[in-house]
Structure formats: C-alpha cells, structure tokens
Amino acid sequence: MSSDRTQPVIRVSGVTKAYRLYNSKADRAAELFLPFGRKRHHLHYALRDFSFEVAKGESIGIIGRNGSGKSTLLKIIAGVLTATSGEVSLHGRVASLLELGAGFNPEMTGRENVYFQGALLGLGSREMEKRVAEILEFADIGEFIEQPVKTYSSGMFVRLAFAVSIHVDPEVLIVDEALAVGDVRFQKKCVDWMKRFQQRGGTILFVSHDIFTVKAFCNRLVLIDEGKLEAIGDPDTVANRYYQIMFPKASPSTTAAGDEVQEIRQELAEMPELQDEDDGHWFEPDMSDGQRQWGGGAASIARLRVGGVRAPNLFAWQDSILFDVVVRWNRGEVRRLCAEYHVQPRLLVGFRLENTKGFVLTNFTNATQADNGFDLLASGVSECRVRCRIAPLKLAAGNYFFTPGLAVGTVDHLHPVMEYTNLVHLHCDTSRQVLGQMQLDYEIAFSATAAGAEAGAAIATAS
C-alpha cells in the first residue's frame, strides 16, 4: 500500500478543545449576566495541542482509555465540533460514522433519510437514485426501510448509517466504534468492505476498544491519554504502551527490593539446564525489552525457555513446541489485587499466537473448568514451574509470534496481571502446501444416496 506523505489527506495541527465547566446553573447564569465579574467556570481540556498527519491510503487506529479524547478528535476532524484552537485540513470526500443515527431525522422513514443523508454529503436525488438499491441491499433491514427511523433499534440505525456512508464514494472514512453494534454477519460484511476500500487506496480513521482488531487492520496506531498524544507509530509498540497505561506497575514498596532481585538472579543462574533428549533444541527469548511488556508487580515470568525447535526460532510442520516457564509472585501484592478485584488467588498462564499481520490465530490457557490454576497463596510458596507442550501446529510457512501472559482468578472471573507482547518469535519452515494459515486434521467421506442409486439404475436401463 503506497502512501504519499508529502501531501497528507488529513493534517491536524495544534488542535485544542476546551469546555467550560460550572459548579451550578447559578454560576453559569451569573457569568452570563455579569460578564466582567470573576470567572465562575473552570476549563476542562478534552484535547491539548494535538498534531498528526495521515497519508493517502493509510488506515489509522485511534486508541485510549474512556474519556481520553478519541471521539472528540474524530468529531473535530469530521467537522461536527469546532476546535478551541488549532487547524484541521482535509482533502477528499469524507464519510463519517460517529454517533448512531447522527444526522437522521427520527420522524422520517429510512428511505427518506437515505436521500436526506445523500443531500448532506453533496449528492443530488438523481445520483442517490442510482445508489439506493445497493444501500438497501447492504443495510438489509427489510420492510423497516419504510418505517420512521425513531422505531429502529440501535443495530438497525448503524446498519443503515454505515450503508449510506460507504455508498457515496468517500475517499476518507471515519468510524467510531460503529462495528461494535449489529450482528456478527453484519460486522463481517463491514470489515470485508473496509478491506476492499483499503485496497483501492482509501483512507480510514478507526476508533475501537478492540485492540486486536485495530492491530490487525491498521498501518499505524495513535494513542491518546488525557487529551494528549501519548504515542504514534507501529501497532504492536503503541498497543503495548496502551496496556502499560491501563495496567501500571505496582509501587516500589510492593515489588522486590534490590537484594531480593539479586538473589533471584543468582537462583536463576544456578537452575539446571533442561536435558530432555526428545525435545530438540532449546532457546531462551530475550526478556529485557521492557517496552514490549506491561503489568504490575503481582506476578511475573522469571525465566522462559522454548523447546522442540530445530534451531533457534525454527520449527517444522511435524514439530511439537514446548514452553518451560518459571513464575514468581509477590504474596502481599497478590492478596491486595484479589481483594480489590474480587478474584480468587489462582495463577492462570496463557499464550496467544499471532501472525505477522497481527491476526490472532488462537489463545490457550490452563483456565479450564477442570483446572482453575495454581494457588498463589499456598503456604510458603512464591514460585512455580509451568510446562506446556503444544501438539504439531501444522501452520503455513512463515513467521509467528507467541505472547505469554499471566492472570489471577478463574476462567469465569479473572484479572490480567502481566503480558509479554510477541516475546517468542518462531519461523515455520515447511514444504507442505497450506491454503490459508493452518492445516486441520480432517476426514471427508463419500456415499451414494438412495435417490442417486435409483437414478443411476434408470440411466443404465435406458442405455
């Protein structure tokens, strides 16, 4: 996907959005009628001096905590809100899907609103007439298209709004959590259309709390925190920074002191090497990159080794992968966390497998009904060893990433504690032909039906 960064499609320069907040209606009235008196308000900054650029053909994901300013930014870019200061420049027709049914007249029917929305986007009735059939087919709300919009469910709102937005030939599409509404089939239809839009060189701004979706879908991520640009760039790096904000590290008083850390390192250095003859080559991933991990001080992986590979980072179709993990935890911090989040003090260890595009192929964990984890507050215990063996993966040739993670609780109610994003990089080298990403163990059988046998006999008799 080519991008001409010399001529950005969207340029946001020093945008600030401030709101006046009053303690009471009386203060608001007093300031209105006594403009030269003392100020009765204080300013809340939804955005502060925000700047970034989007090149043609880019898909930008915007992430952040609730209330961080994501929706405010999109509304300013779309022209729904006016910035307090700063500038926004856009090039090309923009279609925005922000709030459900924004711009719809609730008293008008769905069909009437289709034409109304087209007029707002600069298309005449004749032009919209050519597109109505495609819009109604995509929205797929049936006879409700002739009913007043005020009778629609939220899902029907977004189906019709999305259908209108994408059928007015936009060059820039702005989407704010719209795909979180509607059934699974409609969400799949929207994602498929957005992928085709990407391939045609369209530009997308996409706000979502589904980090895996934005990582897989977007070229870059923008992280907003408290109205400020916290990070922008590679999806993995920015997503990891988001998790670090969401799950800050524990205070120094709850983590290991310097002497204890040195003691732990010494113990790890003295651990015996694994000598399993049938487990192939073992290697130890580099865990020193703090930018690729997030979590507090309740529990952490002290050591991780990967076995079953042919050489460092290399495995084949028929190889089983093994993980040997040493987990340590702070009993006091575990006790505090369990009390705060009302979870059981049981350790859950999981792994996520992704390809190079960020698509999650699978997750697996010990969090099952039969085995709900290791008791972290068992008498005198602050360390355990976890062995995990994965049967032959039968993946297509290529690069893959395992993300190990720790949680506390049970399968029904857990709290994430630590994650090491894309810590284990493995390359699958196989001569097998795989259509897709992985090969399944399957069986296909044929048998003639009774009707088919009678038809065959009749053909034989006729000839």
Automatic annotation (TrEMBL):
The keyword Transport applies. GO terms for molecular function: ABC-type transporter activity; ATP binding; ATP hydrolysis activity. It comes from the Bacteria. Residues 10-251 form the ABC transporter domain. Keywords: ATP-binding, Cell membrane, Membrane, Nucleotide-binding, Transport. SUPFAM superfamilies: P-loop containing nucleoside triphosphate hydrolases (SSF52540). InterPro entries: AAA+_ATPase, ABC_transporter-like_ATP-bd, ABC_transporter-like_CS, ABC_transpr_TagH-like, Bact_Polysacc_Export_ATP-bd, P-loop_NTPase. GO terms for cellular component: membrane. The keyword rRNA-binding does not apply. Belongs to the ABC transporter superfamily. This is ATP-binding cassette domain-containing protein. It comes from Ramlibacter agri.
